[in-house]
Each structure stands twice: as structure tokens, then as C-alpha cells.
Amino acid sequence: MPEAAVVPPSPPAASGVRPRLAGIGTALPATAVPSAEIAARLGVEPGWIEQRTGVERRHIAGDGDSLTALAAAAAERALAVADVDPADVDLVLVATFTADRLLPNAAPLVADAIGSRGAFACDLGAACAGFLSGLSLACGQIESGRAGAALVIGADLVSRVIDPDDRKTAGLFGDGAGAAVLTGDGAGDGAIERILLRSDARRSESIVAGRDERLMRMRGQDTFRAAVGALTEVTAELLEAEGLRTDEVDLFVYHQANARITAAVGDRLGLPRERVVDCIAELGNTSAATIPLALAHADCARLLRPGSRLLLGAFGAGFVWGAGLLRWEGDVAW
Amino acid sequence: MASTTLTPEAVEARVGAALIEFGADPGAISPAATWEELDIDSLDLVELAQMIEDDYGVELRESDIEQLETVADAVAAVIERAG
């Protein structure tokens, strides 16, 4: 990625209130579609999609599914794990670019559905970096005392903006939702540490969805290169800012854009494969939902233990990207 | 950046080494070999383009990469643009 205007990262939690990741919840549509089915429709050889993306199957929303319901299901699970009463949530952020309608936004509907009526609720648009962006914004609200408990939800039904005949996107994306509950008592395990976020629109035409066509168009090769460069650089920048070596991070949890992007970033940083989460095979690229889904996957696969230091990284249309550090607390994923 | 020797032979050797890294059969690599014959896919070409940028300072965008069909095409693109 070309150099962005770099500003010094601000120190976290100047107020002394430390945000804590208290719960993770996920939700997927019931139907999983294997890559072979999509390959047959596209007229490509069996294995073509898997070789280029690592995706073997993805969950796809049906006519009866809604983004609001999926996001609400993930949020309810996160609240249950965190043991936080929905009535105590005073901030609900939904990162998405596929809300059910242009208006109303998804967040107030989700807040209402889960019993957090009255909360400050809004959507945020940062494409595949939406969850990490929401995490940063919610941390700021908690650190400043403007929110006590917050929900950050990454949810996308990407299938609704995919051209089923477009080889560049049809086999890559999936639908899903993931939610995180943040509280203000993150002094030890669960603490969310520094998050760096960046943007650079010089290659913004690489991923676009227009209002008329309402379909995502992607220059896959340009996006691939930009993503690998940006994720590698921001990871190094964050580690340097914190005075950490790569071997002091237990697990690298990147936006699951494409298995080959994740592998290329790991190779460039010299990371052992077992310390880089790769769960795209079962889920595809679910845009804003990938990071919470990857955290839940890592927990389920027993890759996490209390006190594990995690580095999250995301990259999306814009381009916007970033990385953040957190300490994992045991038993917080649904 | 741009410190690698810039003769067609040297560029061809560098490109060939990268293709082998991506899984191409060394015995099949020749100037006329196509990506399809070498089992090199579009994302391998992106990584090849990144290597070319790192080593020769030549930037190949997606629209440029799409024009390349053979090993010789890639070598020619490097020589032409680096010159």
C-alpha cells in the first residue's frame, strides 16, 4: 500500500478507564453453499475457487433472512456470554454495507430487537474494516465515560450485492454476523489495547458498488496487492509502537479476505502458520463479520487461552485498514 | 529497489525463480511458456508483479498484468519499463 499520511498513534485509555472485550457472539444463515456448486455455475473447473481463495463453502442468506435478525442473534449471544443485561447497553454500533434497507439503519432495529431500546445506535461504513473501526470508536466512548457498555457488531449479507456470474467475487464472499460486548473494566485479561486505523483513497476504484447497479465490483489483483502491503505495514507499525516483537503475539487474527492474502501477510512478517488464523474455508469472506467470526473459530479450535495477546488486522474498500491489540479473556466466545 | 541486474537473461532468471517458488515445473519454464502451461494463476501473477516492483522498481497494475501471457511478455515489460 502506498504510504498514507502517518500520524502518531494516540495512547490508549488516558482516562484510566480500560475497555474490555467481555463477550463474542456469532450468527450464520442456515444454508451453506459448497464451492463446487458455484464453480459449476461459473463454468470453471472444480477446485478453481478453492485454489484462488481457500473458500470451500460459505453460508448464504435465504429470502426469509435479514441482516437485522442475524446481527441481533449474534448480539444476544455476545451479551449472554458477557453476562451483560441488554438494558445496560448504551451504545450499539453496526458495521455493515448491506443493511436491509437504505433507511432505517440497522443499529436502532438491532438495539430494539435485543432489548437495548434507548441506546445510542448507529451504523458505520468501513466495509471489511468495519468491525475493527467500530471497536476503536466504542473504545473511545468507553474510555471517555460516554458509554458504560457497548455492542460492536460486524454484519454483512454480501450475497445481496454479488453478481452470481462475476468470477472475481461470486466464489469469494459469504454472509454472517459477529458481535462483541465491551465494558469498562479491562485492566487485565480482556483489555483492548492500541488500535491503529488508516485510509488512502488513491485506489478507491478497486472495490466499488454503485447505487444504481447495487453490485460489488472488484479489481481483485490490485486489491490483493494493496491488502497484503497494508496489512503487513500496519502490523509492523503497531508492533513497533508497542515495542513488541512478532513472537510476543500469540495469535494474529486478520480479516478473512482470501486465504492467499492471509498467507502472504504471514509470510512477509515471518509468522509461523499456526499463529495466523485461517478459517475462510468454511465461511468465505463475510466482510465486516470476519474478525468476530475468526475469534470464535480460534476459541473453538482451542487456539486461545486466558491472557493470550492477539493482533487483529483488517483491510477493506476505500481503502481503509488497521490493526489492534487485545488480551484474550477465557470463556468469552459463543 | 531497482538494484538487480537488468539484462533480459537476468530478468528471465529472476522471473523463472519466482515461478518455481509459485509451484511451476522448472522443466516447463521457457520464454514462450504461457501461464496456463505453467499452472500459474492470476494471484501468482500479482505476487510476481510485487516481486518485479520490489526488485526492479517497475509498477505493473492489474490492467498491465492482464496483457501478459508468457514468460517473455513479463520479461519484456520489465526491460521496457525499467529502461
Quick overview:
The complex is a heterodimer of chains A (334) and B (83). With 334 residues, chain A is of the alpha/beta class.
Explain this structure.
- The complex is a heterodimer of chains A (334) and B (83).
- Chain A is α/β, with parallel strands linked by helices.
- Chain A contains 9 helices and 13 strands.
- Chain A has a 5-stranded mixed sheet, with helices on both faces. In chain A, strands 8-13-12-11 form a 4-stranded mixed sheet, sandwiched between helices.
- In chain A, α3 (67-82) crosses α4 and α6 runs parallel beside α7.
- Chain A is globular and about 55 Å long.
- Chain B is mostly helical and 83 residues long.
- Chain B has a single domain (8-82), classed as ACP-like (Non-ribosomal Peptide Synthetase Peptidyl Carrier Protein, Chain A, Orthogonal Bundle), CATH 1.10.1200.10.
- Helices cover 59% and strands 0% of the residues of chain B.
- Chain B contains 5 helices and no strands.
- At the A-B interface, α6 of A face α3 of B.
Q: Which consecutive residue ranges of chain B, at least 5 long each, have pLDDT under 50? A: none
Order of helices and strands of chain A: EEHHEHEHEHEEEEEHEHHHEE
Beta fraction of chain A = 15-25%
- Count of separate structural domains of chain A: 1
| CATH fold annotation of chain B | Non-ribosomal Peptide Synthetase Peptidyl Carrier Protein, Chain A
Number of helices of chain A: 9
Spatial extent as radius of gyration of chain A: 18 Å
> How large is the share of residues in beta strands of chain B?
under 5%
Give the oligomeric state.
heterodimer
Secondary structure category of chain B: mainly alpha
Neighbour order of strands in the largest sheet of chain A: 1-7-6-4-5
> Helix and strand succession of chain B?
HHHHH
